[in-house]
Amino acid sequence: MNDLLTNITNALIGFAVGDALGVPVEFETREQLKHYPVSGMLGHMRYNQPAGTWSDDSSMVFCTVESLCNGYHLDDIGMNFSRWRNDRFWTPHGRVFDIGIQTQKAIDRIDRLIENGIRIKPMSDVGVNERENGNGSLMRILPLALFLEKKPIDERFRIIRDVSGLTHPHIRAVIGCFLYSQFISGLLEGKDKIRSYEAMQTESKEFLSSVTDPSELAHYSRILDHNIAGFDEATIESSAYVLHSLEAALWCVMKNESFRDTLISAVNLGNDTDTIAAIAGGAAGLIYGMENIPEEWISVLARKDDIMDLAVRFEKGLLQLK
Question: For 92-104, what is each residue's pLDDT tens digit?
Answer without folding.
Answer: 999 999 999 999 9
